[in-house]
Amino acid sequence: MRNLKALEAYLEVATLGSVTAAAKRLQLSQPSVSRIIQDLERDLGQKLFVRVGQRLALTQQGMLLRDDVERALAGVAEVWERAQEVANLRTRPVRIACISALAFGLVPHAWASLSHSVGAEGARRIAIQTDTPERVRSSVLSNDADIGATSLPLQHRDQTTHWFGSAPCVLAVRADDPLAKEQGPIPLSAIKSRTLVEMSNRRGLPARIRQTLKNNHIETGGLIRTNSTMNALALIRAGAGGPAGTVGVVEPVTSAGTPLDGIVTLPLALDIPYSFGVISHNATQLSETAAELITALEQAAHLLVPGFKLHTPDEHQSLITQLALLED
Questions:
Q1: pLDDT at residue number 200
Q2: Could you name the domain of life of the organism this protein comes from (predicted)?
């Protein structure tokens, strides 16, 4: 418990930049918090803070520690919350880890379809965490999430793949872009010499998009990189590429589930597939609500995502091979 208090004090000082403010938040005396931080630094053998003017700033070592401390304290808080739920016979929230595309595109609609009814377990509750595909899969394997909604690959010996499917990428343009008047499909040649917003990831879908453009000899006039489709859509809407106009070849789920005013998405003449699905741990006994959410996510994909196609389980490996070839 002493170590837990020390980490809480460290995180408050790191957040507020002041021992005095942290002490007030923790309802402790200022000398007590100062002593806790000094003891923590002594135990770790590292200086965690340095004074910059009137504030305390994290050292490099202190910055490296912060994310781990936040995760650890969040885990403790979750355990305590679960203990209270058990004591009060309350149903635990469905914990879903998902990539941002599915968090924006499918999860809100799927949950809304369930939220107006009460299941056999009582009132429905959900906890949503967004992360990278690798960390989503890791969260499921470590039982930090009941289900995961992420891009391929999905199969693992300790995981169950409930469903997965694919849909073609789309071209995103501003509503006042000349291309917005077209019905599509739009040839890739239409984006030559245009400023392109692309994903910064080096593997997966971004690599497939880059390789497809290269194979078709499409050279853009400028480049903006980001790590989320929602960022890309916002940049396109703002005209961040200048007078020539900004476009993006993006996965179709974000814009389908959360359309942005001022953005038009168009089908492409060439199919660049985006594949995603839902997984859980083999050892996890899913609640009724979690099982219903998995089904609702599949239904939302069919309803919202243009060109969505469901695959059978035995297609997983062949699809992975096909996608890998598109990245070379």
A1: 84
A2: Bacteria
Do 207 and 135 fall into the same domain?
Answer: no
**Where residue 100 sits, what CATH number does that domain have?**
3.40.190.10
Q: Are residues 226 and 152 in the same domain?
A: no
Strand boundaries in the chain, DSSP class E = 49-52, 55-58, 94-98, 126-130, 147-151, 159-168, 170-174, 195-199, 222-226, 246-250, 263-267, 273-281, 309-311
Strands 263-267 vs 309-311: parallel, antiparallel or unpaired: unpaired
* Total of domains in the chain: 3
Tokens of 171: 């071209």
Do 215 and 79 share a domain, yes or no?
A: no
Average pLDDT over residues 268-297: 94
SS3 content of the chain, % helix, strand, coil (to 5): 50, 25, 30
pTM: 0.78
Phi-psi category of 187—alpha, beta or left, where left has phi over 0 and alpha has psi -120 to 50?
Answer: beta
d(CA 289, CA 221): 49
Higher pLDDT, 322 or 251: 251
Q: What whole-number distance in Å separates Cα of residue 245 and Cα of residue 178?
A: 10
Asked if residue 16 lies in contact with residue 25, where contact means CB atoms within 8 angstroms, the answer is yes
Judged by average pLDDT, the poorest of 70-79, 228-237, 248-257 is 70-79
| Interval 80-123: pLDDT, tens | 666 666 555 457 789 999 999 999 999 999 999 997 665 544 56
Distance CA 321, CA 328 (A): 11
What is the full DSSP assignment across 227-254? Answer: S-HHHHHHHHHHTTT-TT-EEEEE-SHH
